[in-house]
Structure formats: structure tokens, C-alpha cells
Amino acid sequence: MKIFLLTYAHEQGIQKDTGGIRKVQELAKAFTRADHKAVVFLPKDEFEFERGRVLYKPYGVINITGLRPVCAYLSQFIKPLWLYLCTKDMKPDVIYFRTAPSVLPVLLSWLTRAKFVIEINGDVLGEERGKVASLWRDASHYLRTKLIIAAERINCNAAGAVIALTEGIKEIIVNRYGISPEKIFVINSGTNIAHCRPMSVEQCRKTLGLNGNRRYINFIGVLYKHQGIDTLINAAPSVLEQYPDVIFLIGGGGPMLKLWLQKAEDMGLEKNFRFLGVIPFKKLPLFLNTADICVAPFTGNRGEASPLKLFDYMACGKPVVCSGIPSLRSLVNECKGIISVPPDDSQALASALIGLLNDDSKRESMGGEGRKYIEEHHSWDVIAHKIIDAIK
Q1: How far from the centroid of its chain's Cα atoms is residue 325's Cα?
Q2: Model confidence over 93-121: pLDDT tens digits?
Q3: Domain count of the chain?
């Protein structure tokens, strides 16, 4: 089976190593390992194309605000269609598209007579990116939301299969768009278990120039408001009261970076919070393996999601403390590597972190359980096989 994977993601300052782009690349490699042919279409000049059996076809974009996404979606249609028309043995069997404000992939599937599969990875109405309000930003966000909902309605109706990352997303698709539940398949995210793996804590800290005698609580992700770093900063004084040597390492860029930097400084926590910017994917295991604990303190209005960070954390054998939001309930119930706390509750978060810092054996046990769970249920090979089964 030949699968064309279409993807685009961009926001100023966080283009590289975006989770959605990484997922498509990892799925392509997993499809290839399962003896299918994967062709990935993504913007050129921003992402590294790995050598191997996956065929990468970068497309051009005009890097001007407003024009850039329009150009990307047009290129995402024209490039694979041109390949189909002009290259021998390049007829796709499947067009795989991650949701975006474009219906051109439906037209592409019709012109190439391929099956159309759409992945819905969240609820656009639940997004809260946290940018400073302005007339332009509010208007553009409103327009983008309306466009995505309109496009999703058309795409979901046209698709042969809809991949929903959580049961909650499936319910939204059924209720909002009137899609039959029978063609919606709930398939969570995954991680590269060969890349994200347990490594020597001491060696990783030495490599990254960190003090090997300190305690580290790590977070990775795009710095949107829904990530809940506000709650983590508010929890820090209670943690530091018992463990003054703790360093909170925050990896990622995004619209809330300056605001959270300022908040940590205003609370006198600048020595205990280190905002490291975007962590390249190649260095992700190094960064995560420096941690004693990894956190995901999502806000209560986070909405539906299947965050890559949780699977990366556990693949590295780290105990995880996360917010008990509805979309993560089944994961928390199934996996012994996660402790959940009420969202937006800094004292509950602090208590959970202190409890784990007090118990070396529990941290080790949780890390081992998490790694085992990921190997069995959330490697990209497992996820790819589930998607292939859904397509079939």
C-alpha cells in the first residue's frame, strides 16, 4: 500500500520539531517497516529529512504572515498531484491528512482515486494558546477556528476513515458533524521507543552541563497557556521549602515564554526555573533523562488531546505527574507510571511532587512500569498497525 502523508505546522519561533510534524515522520517510518510505501509532503527548509526508505517530498512556501498557510495548503495539493501525474508508479492508495483549514486533500484523493483518511488530533474550540490579546490576533483566531470546523465537517464526511486521538474527540466528531461512529477509530499518539529510552542520568546531566547533585523536575512542550506552567510556578515555593536544590527545567518555545519568565522572576524563582527554549528532537532523550520527575500540569480547560510528551516521558523511564483532565483518564487508569492531580491545583501538584521526591523506590518503580506500558501499547509500530487495520 502506498500512503501519501500531508502535513503542515507553523508558528513563529516554534516551527522546528513541532509534534505534529514529528508524528507524521514517525508514522511514515513505521508504515515503511510494516512493508508499506510512505511518501511525506512537508515544508522545505525548516525540517530535517532523514535518509532511509521513507520518501520525502518538500514543498515550497512564501514566508509572509497570512500568505504562508495559504501557500502551504496549495503546495500540499499541487506537489502530490504533480508527482502522481508525472511520475511512474506514484499512484497513492491512501491520502493521510492531519486536520487543518483545507479541503484540498479531499479533491486530491478524488483525482488520484485514493482512499482519504483524516486524523483529528484535538478540539479547535478548546484551544487556548495564550497570546496577548489584540484585535488582529482575536480576529485571526476566530476566523481560523471557523475555517477548521467547516473544513473538518467536509473532510470527515468525505473520509473513508477518521482517526480520533481520544474517545472524547470521537464523541465531538459524532455530535458536531453527524459522522457515523462506525467509521471513527480511536488511536492514541505514540513515541519512538528506540530514540526515547532510559539512559544514564549522571551522563546526561554531564553532557548538558547540569549539576549532577541537584534534583530536576522537567517539562517539554510548546508554551501555550493550556500547558499549565502557571500552576507549576505556583507550586514551586512549597516544593522548594522541602527541597531547595530543585531545578525546574522547561523545554520549549511559544507565546507564553516571556510571561512565564517574568512570573518566575516576580516570585523570586528565577534561579530555580530554567527556560531552555526549543529542545531539538535529537537531544530530547538527553533532556528527559536528566529528570527525577517529569510533569504535564495541563489546565482544566485543556480539552481533548493525546500529548506526545507523556509517551516520551514514560519511554525514558521517568515517573510522571500530570493533571487529571478527562482526555487522559483512561491512560492514567491503565498505566502505573503516572500520578494524576486535579488541574489548576498548585498545592495538589506540589504534594505529588514532594511525595515522589521523598520516595526513590517509587520513582524507580513508576519509571519501569511506564516504560513497559509504552513498549506494549504506544510505540509507533503499534500505532501504525492500528491505523493500517482501520484503513483496511
Answers
A1: 16
A2: 999 999 989 999 999 999 999 999 999 99
A3: 2
- Relative orientation angle of helices 104-112 and 135-158, to the nearest 10 degrees: 30
For the stretch 296-341, pLDDT in tens is 999 998 888 888 999 999 999 999 999 999 999 999 999 999 999 9
Residues 169 and 279 placed together within one structural domain of the fold:
no
- Specify the 3-state DSSP secondary structure of 164: strand
Buried b / exposed e across 44-57, counting CB within 10 Å, b at 16+?
A: eebbeeeeeebbbb
Question: For the segment 243-298, what is each residue's pLDDT rounded down to a tens digit?
Answer: 999 999 999 988 899 999 999 999 999 999 999 998 988 999 999 999 999 999 99
Instruction: Express the helix, strand and coil content of the chain in percent, nearest 5 each.
Output: 45, 15, 35
Query: The CATH number of the domain where 63 resides is what?
Result: 3.40.50.2000
User: What integer pLDDT is reported at residue 60 of this predicted model?
Assistant: 86
List pLDDT tens digits, range 205-241. Answer: 999 999 999 999 999 998 999 999 999 999 999 999 9
Q: Measured between alpha carbons, how far is residue 357 from residues 42, 78, 286, 363 in Å?
A: 42, 54, 21, 8
Burial of 133 (0-12, 13-18, 19+ CB in 10 A): exposed
* Residue 219 bridge partners (DSSP): 250
What's the pTM?
0.90
In a shared domain, residues 273 and 347: yes
Q: DSSP code of 12?
A: T
Quote the radius of gyration of the chain (alpha carbons, Å): 21
Q: Indicate if 147 and 205 belong to the same structural domain.
A: no
